[in-house]
Amino acid sequence: MKRKRLLALFTVLCMLIGIFNVNAFASYDEPLDIDAGDVVLIDIPDDFSDEAMAVAAEDDDPVLALRPFPQHNGDNYYYPPAMPSNKTQADMDKMVYDLFLNILNRDLIVATNYPQTVEDFLLAVYHSPGESGSFTVSESHGYGMLFLAYMAGCEEWLNASDYQWRNGSTSIHDYYDAMLRTVQAFPSTVSGWGPNRNMIWCLFGSTSGSSQGITGTGANRSAPFYSRSGERDS
Question: pTM for this structure?
Answer without folding.
Answer: 0.69
